[in-house]
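User: Here's a chain of 414 residues. Predict its fold as tokens.
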Amino acid sequence: MRDADATLVRLSLADLVLGDDATVRVSARVATERGRWPHLTQLAAQWRVTPQLSAALGRSGATAELPDGARSTLRGQVLAYAARSAQILRACSAAQAVLVEAGVVSVAIKGIASIATLYGASSRRMIADVDLVIAPEDLAAARSALERTGHRDIAPPFESHVAAIGFSRYLHNYARTFVRDGIEIDLHWKLGPRPPAALEAGRIIARSLQKTVEGRTLRVSGPVETALAAVHHALRSSFPAASTLKDASDLLIWWECEGRSHGDALIACAHESRIASSVSALARTIARRNAGHPIARAVAEIEQHFDRAQRREAVRLAAFIERNFVGDAPDDATVELMTPALVVRSIAGPLLAGNRRLTPAEPLETGAPLASRAPLLHRIGNRLRRARRIGGELLSFRRIATYRAVARAQSRYH
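Assistant: Prediction complete.
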């Protein structure tokens, strides 16, 4: 597929998932006329928004616009991914039961919490793993309990792992990854070196709720924390299109389900946690495609207490997100170079402490084994190509302001 066609497919998927009914119907008709559905269904699966795409098409009446092959493919994908999400939901329930027996309170966040709070069924949202938050003092007991029940800790050695997260210039969560039966359990005790106030482990636990999903009772994050965790996830990763669309779709559904009763609390906590500009940026991304949605009206409420710098940051973050949807995302190092202090710390810290640095490609939370090192000349060539790309991005002066906005927003939590 040509780059121009790939860009249109990415933008079409964003419109289909986040748009109002009229936008979805127009986008579906154009996709059919241009023969884009094979690429759209494939991209929706890669970005893990297949159920949201299917729901938007059904809600808007646009399913009739699809060719028979696309309808069949989408239906099959929804059923397959629903089975996987249900399996992960069961694994979450089992892991929480193990931890309860060990006297450890755990709270499901991210995908599991979104299903329990917003979607109501595992078939309506794809999830890849289980994310649990525990109190830091419960870490040893939680690790022992999970390992006794066949969960294998696949993260790097503990001490070097934690030290490397602290020195890294990337905004990593503190977590250990356990695997059983092919399902990952990410055990978090701190969402980044300096987590937003609303997302400190103790606060998440204190404000957590019990929810019953598909006959299973789970402890999940409260409504406000569920929304802010989605926003923090998008910011922490520098708003990559693949996960940001899913986070934005969660925020869209959140405002429909919880906005009336918890919207004011969310806005207050976002300001308290200094993440309001990112909430506004995601809200702007939705409002651009869905002007009649409640979140579009909430943008003014979110920004009414912004000063000029905060409003400018929100606008630049939204522009950064849109460029990523187009497929013009910068190298992650380009953004990180906007905060020189973090770069210096990431280099000097490990040298002084005798620890190696970690990059996002290494197994901080996924626990995936490192690949064998490529030949020296190949690595040199890759670094030269990457350096040339970063240099070109730094010369794109019109976009430097958006890179700085992302780096500034992330640096509050390092």
